[in-house]
Design brief:
Blueprint lengths: L10 H13 L4 H13 L9 H9 L24
Amino acid sequence: MAQFVVRNLEDDIAEKLKKRARRHARSTEAEVRHILRAAVQEPASGSHKLGTRISRRFERSGLTEELPELRGAPVRAAEFER
């Protein structure tokens, strides 16, 4: 496995990393590994657009209608009933 040494890290950054590690019940070293893994993860291939993600999130709660694509449509003011 690779090892890294980080030199000249500001004291306040090191302290914030330690506090974050404590919040997550990890060692500082484990917290830094977690941060680095998350930073280099590739997004899932074929990631879906926002409308598709919203639709999928709410389909278990009864959303069955297609969400209209509004890109390029003229902007309209919202209408509210009184």
